[in-house]
Structures are given as structure tokens and as C-alpha cells.
Design goal:
This protein is an alpha/beta fold. It contains twelve helices and twelve strands. The strands form two sheets. The protein has a six-stranded parallel β-sheet with strand order 2-1-3-4-5-11, sandwiched between helices.
Length: 332
């Protein structure tokens, strides 16, 4: 940095500000510094900077599955947002295993990360009570009732309500639900489904609800298996709301394998609005969870918590889900 400063006739402080993307530097000066940095192939010493600032400039992300497109989209938005402030993202998968999740969190703690973003597979708060005393973290997608923690997600009961009401509006009367785990998202989407049936004068039937233990990993197989069970119900459902889009894609496979038509025989809606939903053999109607916004909001919240001189009270940001209609529910 001293060499670059001497070469350009600038102060070391100015060079440091450019490398930290500080706004208090003119654009012409910034371009001169970055051009010289590139010519010298200069790499800042992160360890040395950490010793001075007390920060690692690392943020951890723990999700149930790295291959699930929803979490991949969240990770991409989160990574992009923190990179602009000089931070890097470390991503880890719990594989929907609470014990593995706990080990992964401990591994990230050992790296002295500045903060963590967690989509937890757990339902208990005991471990998080202790974690809250030690670390800065933000929960995303699923919260933990009874724990006052920073949280970003959607109104999951509204998601279940919107999806179920849409199926009712297109004429479905025997509506099934392939539900999620006993966490906040699974419970609330189920509640939205059940309450909407009752509010619209339709019968709620236990046999039309199939619970899956693994909904973020092995989703296609789980959705296909659940749908095969529903096809043997008498009478057969004429509409299905799936906890997430990968489960719905598996369900589509079973419906088509049975020689039935979507949406004429069975209409289907998922949750997530994944980027490939419009490219499926039967484009999938879905509830938009705003994955990119969740990632961006998580980044903004994490950075504000890292910069805060005193830890503020926990905050929650609840986004409104939105219906996206495609061919799987578009009846003529």
C-alpha cells in the first residue's frame, strides 16, 4: 500500500479507503488506484486487516440443502450484497439434520466469523439462546417461536391461504396438501391451507394431508411418493397445494405417470417461485417467496449489526407472498 501511495502521490489512508470501497474518494482517484492495484496484482492481507480491525470479514450461511434452488438464490443475493462491502460468504449445509447443523455452526464459530445467517432445521431454541450470547446471527425463512432473534421471511400462513384460495377459485373442491416439517414454515403454511378450506365451506380431511420428513433434500422423490398416496384416496383430490416447488415437481411426475392431466384432472401449486418453474413440461403455478429480497435484506441487516456499537433489539422483516399463475392451475 505504501508503494502504491508513493507511485501515485497519494496517502496510504486514501489507498486504504479505495480498497475498502469507502465512498469518501473521488471517482478519478479511485480509478487510478484500482488500475495500479491491478497492474501490481496486489492482494490485501486479510489476516493483518483482521488483527487491526478485530473482524474476519467473513459471513456464514447455514442452509438445509445447497442444491435447493431457493437457498441457492438466497445465497447468491446475500453474497453479492456483502461483497460490495468487502465481505466474503462461507456456505454450509445441514442436510436437514439438526445435529449436523449444530456441528456446522460450531465449525463456523471456530473461524471467528463476523456474523451468521441461518435457515434452521431445528424447532427448539435452547442452542440458539446460547448462540445469541456469543454471535451475531440472523434467521431466515423459518423462525423459532419463543426466541427473540433477528428474522427475515415471508408470511407463511398467508402463503398457504393464497395458494388454497387460488385452487378454490378455479373450481377445486377436494384440495390436498403435501406439507412440510413441524417447523414454522411447515406449520404456518398448513394452517393457512386448513383455515382457508373451512372459511370457504369446504371439508378439511386428514387423509388429504401427507407430511414429509425431508422436504428440502430428496424433494422430488418425496413429492412423487406423496402424490402416489394421494392418487389412491377415494375420492381423488382435484387440487394439491405443495409446501415447496421441488415437492410439486415430484408430484407432477406421479400425476403424469398415472395418465392424468394437469390442471384438468388435478391442479397443482407450489411455493417458492423458482427460476425454472416457467420452463417445466407443465409450467408450475407458485407462491413467490422473494428469495432475492430475503438475501438482500439479510445482508443489509447483518452488515448493520456488525457495524453497530451496541447490539440493537432483534428485528423481524416479514415479506408479503405473491401468487404467480402458470399452466398447472390455468383451467379454461
Amino acid at each position: 500500500m505504501k508503494d502504491i501511495a508513493n507511485d501515485l502521490g497519494l496517502s496510504v489512508v486514501t489507498i486504504s479507503k479505495v480498497l475498502r470501497n469507502h465512498p469518501d474518494v473521488g471517482e478519478e482517484t479511485r480509478e487510478r488506484v484500482l488500475r495500479r492495484v491491478k497492474e501490481l496484482n496486489y492482494q490485501p492481507n486479510i489476516l493483518a486487516r483482521s488483527l487491526v480491525t478485530g473482524r474476519s470479514y467473513l459471513v456464514g450461511l447455514v442452509v438445509p440443502d445447497l442444491l435447493h434452488p431457493f437457498f441457492a438464490e438466497v445465497a447468491k443475493a446475500l453474497s453479492t450484497a456483502i461483497q460490495s462491502k468487502g465481505y466474503s460468504l462461507i456456505v454450509s449445509s445441514s442436510e436437514e439434520d439438526p445435529e449436523l447443523e449444530q456441528r456446522e455452526i460450531r465449525q463456523l464459530q471456530a473461524r471467528r466469523l463476523d456474523a451468521m445467517v441461518i435457515a434452521s432445521t431445528r424447532t427448539g431454541i435452547a442452542d440458539f439462546d446460547q448462540l445469541q450470547k456469543e454471535e451475531v446471527f440472523v434467521l431466515i425463512d423459518r423462525d423459532l417461536p419463543g426466541l427473540a432473534a433477528n428474522y427475515i421471511g415471508i408470511d407463511d400462513e398467508a402463503a398457504g391461504r393464497i395458494a388454497t384460495k387460488h385452487l378454490i377459485d378455479i373450481g377445486c373442491r377436494r384440495i390436498a396438501h403435501i406439507r412440510g416439517r413441524e417447523n414454522s414454515t411447515g406449520v404456518r403454511r398448513f394452517d393457512g391451507y386448513r383455515k382457508t378450506l373451512i372459511a370457504n365451506g369446504l371439508e378439511y380431511r386428514d387423509e388429504y394431508v401427507i407430511a414429509r420428513s425431508r422436504v428440502d433434500t430428496q424433494s422430488l422423490e418425496q413429492g412423487a411418493e406423496a402424490m402416489r398416496l394421494l392418487l389412491h384416496r377415494n375420492p381423488r383430490p382435484d387440487g394439491v397445494f405443495c409446501y415447496n416447488d421441488p415437492l410439486a415437481i415430484g408430484a407432477i411426475r406421479s400425476i403424469m405417470d398415472a395418465g392424468l392431466r394437469i390442471p384438468e384432472d388435478i391442479a397443482l401449486i407450489g411455493c417458492g417461485n423458482l427460476h425454472y418453474d416457467d420452463c417445466l413440461r407443465v409450467p408450475l403455478s407458485s407462491i413467490d417467496q422473494h428469495s432475492q429480497q430475503i438475501g438482500q435484506r439479510a445482508a443489509e441487516l447483518v452488515l448493520s449489526l456488525i457495524e453497530a456499537k451496541q447490539r440493537p433489539l432483534p428485528r423481524s422483516y416479514i415479506l408479503n407472498p405473491e401468487l404467480v399463475v402458470r399452466a398447472s392451475t390455468r383451467r379454461l
